Each structure stands twice: as structure tokens, then as C-alpha cells.
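C-alpha cells incoming
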């Protein structure tokens, strides 16, 4: 075990939103190292393949000058607590947007605590300006021709728009 405070922030990040980036930035400020764990999640039918999502999260994390050096982005396709343990993490970071997220996250945290008692779950509340942002809603707005630039970075908006217009 290391003396470093290592955390894992898992998600599909399909696509990475301003809300995700807010949680990434805030988590990286209180950890020595934050691993953003991009889930393969083929069952969710992601719009972007794993490599594209990894590249997007890496590019966005690189813009966080004050904490960028503490962030590593990795893909994973196994049990989250096993992935976290393999990385030497002591915490799993989760973002909460609304009360509806709490029930699911509470169940997941309880299950993870049974599976890996040495790994805690830390929930960060979404900032008020980001609490309504969900990747699924952003994709829906884009598919219907709406402007997503207030929900994602210009880089992500450009790629998302190109993806939905190519369909």
C-alpha cells in the first residue's frame, strides 16, 4: 500500500460532459492521484467506442492545468472494486446530481463495501450549474439538432455533432 491518496472515478463518459469535468477537477484537488476509469460498458451501447472516449477524457483532463498532472485516464472492463484495488486506490469517487442518484449510489457503495472493505466510496455533489447534465440527455439533444455547447467542451461538441450528422 502507498501513502498516496489514490481515487478512481468510474464512468462510461459517453460523452464526457462539463458535469463530469467538474467532478474530475474537484476530486483531483483532494487526491494525490485520480484515475478516471472509462468503462467498456458494451451493454449500455455507447455512441463512442472506448478508444474515442479515452482520448476525449484525456484531452479534457489535460486542460485542467492546476491538477492535470494528478489525473490518469484508463479503460476497464472488470469489477470496479477489483480495478480500484489493482490501482492501489483507497476511494471510489461518485458524482451525485439528484436525489434519484442517491438510492442507486447507496446500493452500489454498500455492495462495494462488502466486496472490498478497504475501499471507501466518496460522493461529490454536482455543482448547481451542472446538476442537470447527463450524457444521455446531451446525446438526445444532439440527435435532435439542439445546441450542446453549454453542456460539453467545444472539442466534444464538435465530435458529437459530427457523429449524429453522420448517422
Amino acid at each position: 500500500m502507498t501513502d498516496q491518496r489514490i481515487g478512481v472515478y468510474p464512468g462510461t463518459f459517453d460523452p464526457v460532459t462539463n458535469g463530469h469535468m467538474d467532478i474530475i477537477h474537484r476530486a483531483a484537488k483532494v487526491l494525490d492521484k485520480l484515475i478516471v476509469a472509462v468503462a467498456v460498458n458494451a451493454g449500455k451501447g455507447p455512441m463512442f467506442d472506448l478508444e474515442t472516449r479515452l482520448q476525449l477524457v484525456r484531452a479534457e483532463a489535460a486542460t485542467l492545468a492546476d491538477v492535470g498532472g494528478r489525473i490518469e485516464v484508463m479503460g476497464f472492463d472488470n469489477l470496479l472494486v477489483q480495478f480500484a484495488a489493482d490501482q492501489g486506490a483507497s476511494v471510489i469517487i461518485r458524482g451525485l446530481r439528484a436525489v434519484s442518484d442517491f438510492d442507486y449510489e447507496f446500493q452500489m457503495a454498500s455492495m462495494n463495501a462488502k466486496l472490498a472493505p478497504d475501499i471507501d466510496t466518496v460522493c461529490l455533489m454536482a455543482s448547481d450549474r451542472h446538476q442537470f447534465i447527463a450524457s444521455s440527455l446531451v446525446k438526445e439533444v444532439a440527435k435532435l439538432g439542439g445546441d450542446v455547447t453549454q453542456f460539453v467542451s467545444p472539442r466534444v461538441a464538435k465530435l458529437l455533432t459530427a457523429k449524429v450528422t453522420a448517422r
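note: The helical segments are 18-30, 50-61, 80-86, 99-115, 135-143, 154-166.
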